[in-house]
UniProtKB/TrEMBL annotation:
Coiled coil: none
Organism phylogeny: Bacteria, Pseudomonadati, Pseudomonadota, Alphaproteobacteria, Parvularculales
A single GO molecular function term of this UniProt record: phosphogluconate dehydratase activity
Family annotation (InterPro entries): 6-phosphgluc_deHydtase, Dihydro-acid_dehy_C, DiOHA_6PGluconate_deHydtase_CS, ILV_EDD_C, ILV_EDD_N, IlvD/EDD_N
Residues in Dihydroxy-acid/6-phosphogluconate dehydratase N-terminal domain copies: 68-381
One cellular component term from this protein's GO annotations in UniProt: cytosol
Family per record: Belongs to the IlvD/Edd family.
Reactions mediated catalytically: 6-phospho-D-gluconate = 2-dehydro-3-deoxy-6-phospho-D-gluconate + H2O
Protein name from the UniProt record: Phosphogluconate dehydratase
Organism listed in the record: Hyphococcus luteus
């Protein structure tokens, strides 16, 4: 199938825009690769330290330097359901490597915080910055230079992007990603959403809400809605950084263990010590990044990746922007309806055909680059498959010819929508992102007066007091990266959804983020420039008329903001407590959301 002309045009302009930084990055990787296995350059004392805790067999193999040594970077902890299963993986990986004469070592751990735990809490102000902490922790883990390849064990929101950014600086190594898979299905998402709204209205108590939440999040594994964590896994497949089909196989199953083993063996088979060398920097190029963006649109993925994927690309010398997302959205059909864009969870999506089905459909429609390099070799078509076990043997088979559930997954010729799930808004209020796949078409356009809130809690309090029963646009400024770390404002969805269901026309505008699970209400998020940078959002006042039109891509106000003073706002309370004072340097250095909200500059020419 000939590649879609818009996909071609966007890819070409990304290549042109990125020429200088991409070449500088690749030069850096070539220099690193030219030195050969770094272990061979270590002194005897260095090597002795690196092998001191190994058994005799592994010590001998490391000293000889002729077999691959795979570094394991892990986000394991036993508080997060998504990362708890990762604790068992290193032993499985090392055993598999040992069978082929290779070795594996846990290179280091990275922090892994849970947005589900910190939603609406002070700790959420650390969430976005944790991505760059994870990137640095990944770099520290690999800095010992004793590894011929690496495995990244992580799943959730900031963890995978952080590992990706850190790993990219060691892009001369083969790097494979390995998730834990989703927990089994619990309480249906529509029922969970119903109880949340009833609680927001005061119609059920905390005990009913806790019971519903606990029945939803109930066992080891990733949360089953299609938020940022599961969007991460889709992107790793679309970029060819997984063993095919790794994303949505449940933990604790024979198939999941087989995937862990295969991932370890694949990492060892593509190092510079063998005949097939596939470094990370050859896998992740402009085409792979475009494939990830297309995958996000086709599946209704998380808005968070209009920040994270930008940062991930820049770590590889590739410069993308929101206009690229917008152009690709216009030609990418929406193939999946997974909560919050529908009622199905990822287990149901996987059973209906899953990512193998989606990738095949997008390739056949000419919407993904097929001629890319993946960790499996040449060509993305290998990922249009699903893993399986037959008589104990691991392998792949073709995805079903037809979707097993037309309410959850559809072919490219009969999509849920002809365009993707994300849109870019522009106007005199700046630039913003909106997720339209979860919003009914009639609710994507609104003109109403603003009500400005100083915090997420103020909106909730005024809702509970019955003060918001009217048409309005909720404006929540000073929530951007420089202001307070750009927390997710997920708690705003239930009260706004209640007002919308009462018949009021409501929308949200903020320079903060919403959860990857947000939906129902039109929300213009990531508004750039943010209020702290002098953005117009910080000059709005109650009563200013605002027009939000997701169909036309418009975000404007009729108010004359010229000469108007910025809204007074005290930021100090958001900068202290729960460790937030330690991140003052991050707030001072962070860039805008559209350039990835990064705290380091990876664009500088090192050539």
């Amino acid at each position: 199938m000939k590649l879609n002309h818009v996909v071609t045009r966007v890819t070409d302009r990304i290549c042109e825009r990125s020429e200088k930084t991409r070449n500088a990055y690749l030069k850096l990787m070539r220099v690193a690769a030219s030195k050969g296995p770094h272990r061979s350059h270590l002194s005897c004392g260095n090597l002795a330290h690196a092998a001191a805790a190994c058994d005799a067999v592994a010590k001998k193999r490391l000293a000889e330097g002729v077999c691959p040594n795979i570094g394991i970077v892990t986000a394991h902890n036993d508080m997060l359901s998504a990362h708890q299963p990762l604790g068992a993986y290193p032993d499985v990986i090392k055993a598999a490597l040992g069978e082929i004469g290779a070795t594996g070592q846990i290179a280091g751990g990275v922090p892994a915080m849970c947005d589900g735990v910190t939603q609406g809490q002070p700790g959420m102000d650390l969430s976005l910055f944790s991505r760059d902490v994870i990137a640095m922790a990944t770099a520290v883990s690999l800095s010992h230079n004793v590894f011929d390849g690496a495995l990244m064990l992580g799943v959730c929101d900031k963890i995978v992007p952080g590992m990706f950014i850190g790993g990219a600086r060691f892009g001369h190594l083969p790097i494979l990603f390995l998730p834990a898979g989703p927990m089994t299905s619990g309480l249906e998402n529509n029922e969970k959403a119903r109880v949340r709204q009833l609680h927001a209205e005061g119609k059920v108590g905390r005990d009913a809400l806790l019971r519903a939440e606990s029945e939803s999040y109930h066992s080891p594994g990733t949360c089953t809605f299609y938020g940022t964590a599961n969007s991460n896994q889709m992107m790793m497949e679309a970029m060819g950084l997984h063993v095919p089909g790794s994303a949505f196989v449940n933990p604790g199953t024979p198939l999941r263990e087989a995937i862990v083993r295969k991932t370890a063996l694949q990492a060892a088979s593509v190092t510079a010590l063998g005949n097939t060398y596939i470094p990370f920097c050859h896998v992740v190029d402009e085409r792979a990044i475009v494939n990830a963006m297309v995958g996000l649109h086709a599946t209704g993925g998380s808005t968070n990746h209009t920040i994270h994927l930008v940062a991930m690309a820049r770590a590889c010398g590739i410069v993308i922007d929101w206009d690229d997302f917008s152009a690709l959205s216009d030609v990418t059909p929406l193939l999946a309806r997974i909560y919050p864009n529908g009622m199905a969870d990822v287990n149901r999506f996987h059973a209906a055909g899953g990512l193998g089905f989606v990738i095949r459909e997008l390739l056949d429609a000419g919407l993904m680059h097929e001629d890319v390099t993946t960790v499996m070799g040449k060509g993305l078509r290998r990922f249009a498959a699903e893993p399986h076990l037959e008589n104990g043997a691991f392998g792949w088979r073709s995805p079903p010819a037809r979707s097993g559930d037309g309410e959850t997954l559809r072919p490219a010729q009969n999509p849920f929508s002809k365009t993707g799930g994300l849109r870019i808004l522009k106007g005199n209020l700046g630039r913003a992102v909106i997720k339209v796949s979860a919003v009914e078409p009639k609710k994507r356009t609104l003109a109403a007066p603003a009500i400005v809130f100083r915090s997420q809690q103020e909106l909730i309090d005024r809702f509970r007091a019955g003060e918001l029963n009217r048409n309005f646009v909720a404006v929540v400024p000073f929530q951007g990266p420089k202001a307070n770390g750009m927390p997710e404002l997920h708690r705003l969805t239930p009260p706004l959804a209640v007002l919308q269901e009462k018949g009021f026309k409501v929308a949200l505008i903020t320079d903060g983020r919403m959860s990857g699970a947000s939906g129902k209400v039109a929300a213009a998020i990531h508004v750039t420039p943010e209020a702290v940078d002098g953005g117009a959002i910080g000059k709005l006042r109650d009563g200013d008329m605002i027009r939000l039109d997701a169909q036309a891509g418009v975000l404007t106000t009729d108010a004359d903001l010229n000469g108007r003073q910025m809204l007074a706002h005290k930021l100090d309370p958001d900068h202290w407590g729960t460790g937030r004072e330690l991140f003052a340097g991050f707030r001072a250095l962070v860039g805008p959301a559209e350039t990835g909200a990064m705290t380091v500059n990876l664009d500088a020419d090192r050539g």
